[in-house]
Amino acid sequence: RWKQSLVKMLSSGRSVCSRLLSPLTRLSLRSGYDGRAASTMQKGRADPRVLDAMLPYQVNYYGNPHSRTHAYGWESEKAMETARKQVADLIGADPREIIFTSGATESNNMAIKGVARFYKGKKSHVITTQTEHKCVLDSCRVLEAEGFNITYLPVQKNGVLDLELLEASIRPDTSLVSVMTVNNEIGIKQPIKEIGQICRSKGVFLHTDAAQAVGKIPISVSDWKIDLMSISAHKIYGPKGVGALYVRRRPRVRLEPLQNGGGQERGLRSGTVPTPLAVGLGAACSIAQQEMEYDHQRVSMLADRLVQKLMSEIPEVIMNGDPEQRYHGCINLSFAYVEGESLLMALKDVALSSGSACTSASLEPSYVLRAIGADEDLAHSSIRFGIGRFTTEEEVDYTAEKCIGQVRRLREMSPLWEMFQEGIDLKSIKWTQH
Amino acid sequence: MAASSRAQVISLYRTMLRESSKFSSYNYRTYAVRRVRDAFRANSNIEDPRTLERLMEEGRNTLAVIQRQVTHTHTHTHYLNFKFFLCASLCVCGGGGGQGGGMCAF
Ligand SMILES: Cc1ncc(COP(=O)(O)O)c(C=O)c1O
């Protein structure tokens, strides 16, 4: 009898399991591939075309790109210069204006600290915004400790910087303005072209962290009057650990290097450039340029599909950040009366990788959401959806379906949701602490 | 378009679709199949022989990339110590950023 009940348990267990499995898993299983691997979606996917470009340098050519006498060295230097041109072409720059770095973090550090320190004799003020990436904000904190004045401008409720406020904040001793192009948390686009105009007219350098924008929206450093720009390869389906800093030559931007040594990269970034990684960045840029229109249409279509499905099925969903002025691949939604983390947990269980870097949700509501004036409660209920080149309709539909189910389930358990439905104004309640 | 070149286009198209469907990664596979299909569709009205020849050349190069990567993403993953072969294509993160916010690839 115990055998019978065990068999029963197992078989019912199996049916529960198969209900929990995503259509992706089932789809993959049907196609004869290990479904577990397919459903374990790891982060940081590079494009196979990028990998293909990198492989020969990974395997065959061991040359140091800076040792000019060595035959292999010459080969890899050529590859590196091709890559430099591919990066430059994507943003309308001259190859001599591209400095290879280890990523956008280094580029941001280099640009902000480098410019401020170089011009510190005459100028000691830097302007940035409250919604920048942590590495920009932390670089500014370091400068503050060194005696610089930093203005952290607030943004409007839609996440966009007020241009009049920016203009009014520029002082005679301002050396640099740093504003990101596309925000990594809420996807909004800052009006960089207009900001560039203001900065140029006031004789102030403009740096932009374009890690989330390059290769996804058209950018021209000359049209937009950008003086320095940070780029990251892994945001455009390239390898991790490589990026670039665009540094304008005319009018010339000077900066104090962070790293000193062999004088590579025009003396701005000493250290041997890793050829395979630079080649990967170049290939990623070239592919992004070629695929930008196609990717853009696809990502917008999928983003619309996801938002439509969620908003038509669940009430009280709020999109964080301006609904129009945005890059559609990054969507940040707040599900009122649902705790973001519980929702994330419930979703991750079935659909999402446990190994992904973005699983470490913080208990603190994000400073970006706080800066756009999101209610503390709504900031706690926010979830970010990233859609990219390799996202499929099935994944979007599946995620939407799961999300809808989980939000309903979590709300059913929430006394706040019940009160809201009964028409009680939660804001009027005075919570007491015991 | 001449009948002979039409046959060549169709043959290349079929081969590219067949090879694309060999990617073991679900996301690479669906992308490659869709991208090939859309590219051929977008260029289906091209008549100019020179443009056609250029597109065929591009297609053959892409086919070679697909064939190499189908093999590589399958067998050499660990050997080459690449950590980024399987795709996470739809990433969902806690919007409440902090550490999580900064680290997300999107
Ligand atoms: C806007 C932004 N800036 C900077 C970075 C850091 O880039 P990297 O990982 O290349 O250092 C990221 C992402 O991680 C980002 O989204």
TrEMBL record, chain A:
<dbReference type="InterPro" id="IPR010240">
    <property type="entry name" value="Cys_deSase_IscS"/>
</dbReference>
<dbReference type="GO" id="GO:0099128">
    <property type="term" value="C:mitochondrial [2Fe-2S] assembly complex"/>
</dbReference>
<feature type="domain" description="Aminotransferase class V">
    <location>
        <begin position="46"/>
        <end position="398"/>
    </location>
</feature>
<comment type="similarity">
    <text>Belongs to the class-V pyridoxal-phosphate-dependent aminotransferase family. NifS/IscS subfamily.</text>
</comment>
<dbReference type="GO" id="GO:0006777">
    <property type="term" value="P:Mo-molybdopterin cofactor biosynthetic process"/>
</dbReference>
<dbReference type="GO" id="GO:0031071">
    <property type="term" value="F:cysteine desulfurase activity"/>
</dbReference>
<dbReference type="InterPro" id="IPR015421">
    <property type="entry name" value="PyrdxlP-dep_Trfase_major"/>
</dbReference>
<keyword id="KW-0663">Pyridoxal phosphate</keyword>
<dbReference type="GO" id="GO:0044571">
    <property type="term" value="P:[2Fe-2S] cluster assembly"/>
</dbReference>
<dbReference type="GO" id="GO:0044572">
    <property type="term" value="P:[4Fe-4S] cluster assembly"/>
</dbReference>
<dbReference type="Pfam" id="PF00266">
    <property type="entry name" value="Aminotran_5"/>
</dbReference>
<dbReference type="GO" id="GO:0051536">
    <property type="term" value="F:iron-sulfur cluster binding"/>
</dbReference>
<keyword id="KW-0408">Iron</keyword>
<dbReference type="GO" id="GO:0030170">
    <property type="term" value="F:pyridoxal phosphate binding"/>
</dbReference>
<keyword id="KW-0501">Molybdenum cofactor biosynthesis</keyword>
<dbReference type="GO" id="GO:0046872">
    <property type="term" value="F:metal ion binding"/>
</dbReference>
<comment type="subunit">
    <text>Homodimer. Component of the mitochondrial core iron-sulfur cluster (ISC) complex composed of NFS1, LYRM4, NDUFAB1, ISCU, FXN, and FDX2; this complex is a heterohexamer containing two copies of each monomer. Component of cyteine desulfurase complex composed of NFS1, LYRM4 and NDUFAB1; this complex contributes to the activation of cysteine desulfurase activity and NFS1 stabilization. Interacts (homodimer form) with ISCU (D-state); each monomer interacts with the C-terminal regions of each NFS1 monomer. Interacts with HSPA9. Interacts (via homodimer form) with FDX2.</text>
</comment>
<dbReference type="InterPro" id="IPR020578">
    <property type="entry name" value="Aminotrans_V_PyrdxlP_BS"/>
</dbReference>
<keyword id="KW-0479">Metal-binding</keyword>
<dbReference type="GO" id="GO:0005634">
    <property type="term" value="C:nucleus"/>
</dbReference>
<dbReference type="InterPro" id="IPR016454">
    <property type="entry name" value="Cysteine_dSase"/>
</dbReference>
<dbReference type="InterPro" id="IPR015422">
    <property type="entry name" value="PyrdxlP-dep_Trfase_small"/>
</dbReference>
UniProtKB/TrEMBL annotation, chain B:
<comment type="similarity">
    <text>Belongs to the complex I LYR family.</text>
</comment>
<dbReference type="Pfam" id="PF05347">
    <property type="entry name" value="Complex1_LYR"/>
</dbReference>
<dbReference type="InterPro" id="IPR051522">
    <property type="entry name" value="ISC_assembly_LYR"/>
</dbReference>
<protein>
    <submittedName>
        <fullName>LYR motif containing 4</fullName>
    </submittedName>
</protein>
<dbReference type="InterPro" id="IPR045297">
    <property type="entry name" value="Complex1_LYR_LYRM4"/>
</dbReference>
<dbReference type="InterPro" id="IPR008011">
    <property type="entry name" value="Complex1_LYR_dom"/>
</dbReference>
<dbReference type="GO" id="GO:0016226">
    <property type="term" value="P:iron-sulfur cluster assembly"/>
</dbReference>
<dbReference type="GO" id="GO:1990221">
    <property type="term" value="C:L-cysteine desulfurase complex"/>
</dbReference>
<feature type="domain" description="Complex 1 LYR protein">
    <location>
        <begin position="7"/>
        <end position="64"/>
    </location>
</feature>
<dbReference type="GO" id="GO:0005739">
    <property type="term" value="C:mitochondrion"/>
</dbReference>
